[in-house]
Amino acid sequence: MSLSDFIYKMPKVELHVHIEGAIQPQTLLYLAKKNQIDLPAKDVVGLREWYRFVDFPHFVQIYLKASTCIQTIADIEFVARDFLANQAAQNIVYSEATWTPHTHFQQKGLSYDDQLAALNRARDWAKRELNVDMGLVIDISRAGTTPDEALIIAQWAVKNHDNGVVAFGIGGQEVAYPPSLFTAAFDFARANHLPILPHAGETVGADSIWSALKDAHATRLYHGVRALEDDKLVAYLREKQIPLDICPTSNVCLGVVPDIQSHMLPKLLDAGLYVTINSDDPPMFNTTLTKEYQLLADTFQYDATMIEKLVMNGVHASFLSDAKKQRMADDFTRQFSTLQKS
Hints:
TIM Barrel; 8-stranded parallel β-sheet; alpha/beta
């Protein structure tokens, strides 16, 4: 079996992916027509062209438009089902997917509980029909959430820790919105044993990561690729083995690195840091998790053994129970062996 076939068929997990950022053009077109919302294009071909990454403001424009096209609780369930079907098509058997409920509460008045119920209905459907599952990372937007609102969301996320929620996160613009603004929310989540998963070290350097660790009590880090700018930080991350959920194509598109050949993944691994591979907002960056692994194999000449290691990193870094992680790891090992022999 070729390495490409192995990557395509192998079981996977994904720990850094946004449900709204994973809305496919055809899904957005359906929602826009249903909810009578104008889009820059009237067909899938045109929307695919609009989706093509240009720069960060354009990316934000697409993301916000996708969010606006979600108008009802039924839309949320539809989007979540579509997301999980696309994950299943790549043999991504488990995802930890980010959802920002406050956006839909602000925009449309959709309650947090109703949103979560819709996401869990989609999750139950996917487990039953597709044999895939997901946990939800409840996210707050740095610029769009007040500290008081953040605390309310953290309290709600904690209440639903056994109802599909696996972590509490923060995303959006790193500059001018450090985690220290939201310490009450993070302190509450930590005190109630809810893992914390902030975006950090993407558009801002090592200081952002230190803040995520000290002020937000990060369990894992979304991105964190700029840790290499601080030797003490590298040593700390290596000692604690705090996972970095990196997204190579996203890093290129958003200008963190000029091209994939310049990506710091090999240096992160050489430094002994714990890394998982993810797609972030796949259609908006013209990628998938499968493509990410293929890109790394092509760029850095990684073989199947190295790809397997990165996949297993994701299994063990997930917020599944230890027993579920072990069962998944054993199952993945069997599947890897079978694929290698075919």
